[in-house]
Specification:
The complex is a heterodimer of chains A (302) and B (184).
Chain A: H1 12-23, H2 28-35, H3 39-59, H4 69-105, H5 126-140, E1 153-154, H6 173-181, E2 187-193, E3 203-209, E4 214-220, E5 231-238, E6 247-252, E7 260-265, E8 274-282, E9 295-300
Parallel strand pairs in A: 1-7
Antiparallel strand pairs in A: 2-3, 2-9, 3-4, 4-7, 5-6, 5-8, 8-9
Helix pairs in contact in A: 1-3, 4-5
Chain B: H1 5-10, H2 14-34, H3 39-56, H4 67-85, H5 109-112, H6 114-124, H7 128-139, H8 144-151, H9 155-172, H10 180-183
Helix pairs in contact in B: 2-3, 2-4, 3-4, 6-9, 7-9, 8-9
The chains are: A alpha+beta (302), B mainly alpha (184).
């Protein structure tokens, strides 16, 4: 938000590209076309158009619903983590500066001395924010908020019976998924329903960690299946492999009356660059190569 | 003038973070729900938007606009980026099911923000079909091609309406009268 304004006027091509950027984003080719134009002029008019678009958004966003309580708590928790992390970086920078100054003036400083005024108190009050967020999260849990959904039916990994006294219960698929969602390196991909009857009203998403090769599908509204007749099967399309042979991600069932499910993905092969995830309905046990007669959900990474 | 909540965040006031979530959560949530394909997507987007807000608070300049418009800009950027990444997928909701927009009343829009009032006055000067193009594009996240299909309108007309509408709003926001304004 600088006051400096470049001279000149954008031409029609630039204005068209800037308006597209503000309203729906640019394709790589369009971005390249914009990149070769006058960048100073473009960024000044882009800012104006963004402000105009934001003002229209404000004018049309009256009477909005409050942020759901659980989501508000997650945002607060994330803020606490963000600023705590920023503070660590600032502390490290400060420590390095202090060390440099110390070397420069060759003076010794006693450990634990008072830091510079105004630094250590910066965001020092985030403890209460984190605590409050944790409390709300403990009350409301990590489940998605609106619309209210019946209890989550989690399809767990292979069960291992361990006496509770010996070690704590392993995390559920929903808990592991929540952890992956919080991982900045994870891919988060919405799954779109298809026209297959089993997909009517389905919403869902995938979270996938390319480093650990772990991931979860999350569905609401996927039709229950009879495991004796059919099973759902997960497929991962790897950009480095032949499209005709996606990687098998395992089979799963949706129990009757379960409107929401979380399913661990069990990739049978290393996925180098996931391009898309799909779910098909197959014979019990799944298939090696799907005929793709019943694709019920699909999501692409880009 | 007392510092805005964003300026307080930038200066390290931890209480301002909670205030920001309470004060602007409904706005961010409203924009995120409209410009996301699923409720889960809207929740993820909301978290990303607030993270962007924490990161950008120090760049807020009150002389250039209200904190509301700054936050709406951040939200829009993030959501368009997310929509762009998932553009190959079909929309989750049929276009006919789009939520009805209730525009701010010109007499009370200033309670929302000065920019909302300016936009409301500008929109009042547009033809209904021009206003509809802005509504579908800016509030519902439809691409210009999608708007053309939905309204049975040539793509060139949609582009023209979008351009004139945004320029009209920009004009009312008292920005430099040069450049883009002359396009209208």
């Amino acid at each position: 938000m600088s006051d400096k304004r470049p001279q000149g006027q954008p031409d029609e091509a630039m204005v068209d590209l800037l308006i597209k950027q503000v309203t729906e984003g640019l394709s790589p080719a369009e971005q390249r076309a914009l990149d070769v134009m006058d960048s100073e002029l473009a960024s000044a008019y882009l800012r104006d158009l963004e402000r105009a678009a934001a003002a229209v958004t404000l004018a049309g966003s009256t009477g909005g619903e409050p942020l759901p309580t659980a989501l508000s708590a997650r945002v607060a928790q994330q803020a606490a983590e963000h600023f705590a992390s920023s503070e660590k970086v600032a502390d490290l920078t400060e420590a390095r500066t202090a060390a440099a100054e110390k070397a420069h003036v060759q003076q010794s400083a006693a450990p634990g001395q008072s830091p510079a005024p105004g630094r250590t108190n910066r965001f020092g009050g985030y403890g209460w924010l984190a605590a409050a967020a944790c409390l709300v999260l403990a009350i409301f849990g990590w489940e998605r908020s609106p619309p209210p959904l019946p209890p989550v039916a989690v399809v767990p990994p292979a069960a291992v019976i361990v006496p509770p006294a010996e070690r704590p219960a392993p995390p559920t698929a929903a808990e592991e998924r929540a952890a992956l969602l919080a991982n900045a390196d994870s891919l988060k991909i919405p799954l779109g329903a298809t026209k297959d009857p089993a997909a009517a009203g389905v919403t869902g998403d995938v979270v996938w960690d390319p480093v650990t090769q772990r991931g979860f599908l999350h569905f609401a509204g996927l039709a229950p299946n009879d495991p004796a007749m059919h099973q759902y099967q997960i497929w991962i399309f790897d950009a480095g492999r032949d499209k005709r042979y996606p990687v098998d991600g395992g089979v799963f069932d949706v129990p009757a009356n379960a409107s929401e499910v979380v399913i661990p993905i069990r990739a049978s092969l290393m996925v180098r660059k996931p391009a898309a995830f799909a779910v098909t309905l197959e014979k019990p046990g799944g298939v090696v190569v799907s005929g793709r007669e019943h694709v019920v959900a699909l999501g692409a990474t880009s | 003038m007392s510092p805005s909540v964003l300026q307080r965040i930038a200066s390290g006031d931890s209480a301002a973070v909670r205030e920001c979530i309470d004060q602007y959560g409904p706005l961010v949530w409203s924009i995120a729900r409209r410009l996301s394909r699923t409720p889960a997507d809207a929740e993820d987007a909301t978290q990303e938007i607030f993270l962007d807000i924490w990161r950008s608070a120090s760049r807020f300049d009150a002389s250039q606009g209200s904190d509301k418009v700054f936050i709406a800009m951040i939200a829009r950027r993030r959501l368009i980026d997310r929509l762009r990444k998932t553009s190959a997928e079909p929309p989750m909701d049929p276009v006919e099911a789009l939520e009805t927009v209730v525009w701010a009343d010109p007499g009370t829009a200033c309670e929302t923000s000065i920019e909302a009032e300016q936009a409301t006055r500008a929109l009042a000067e547009l033809r209904p079909e021009q206003r509809q193009v802005l509504e579908l594009g800016l509030l519902h996240g439809l691409s210009q091609s999608e708007i053309a299909t939905r309204l049975g309108m040539p793509l060139g007309t949609v582009k023209s309406f979008m351009r004139r509408g945004l320029i009209k709003v920009r004009e009312f926001m008292n920005v430099d009268a040069e450049g883009v304004l002359s396009e209208g």
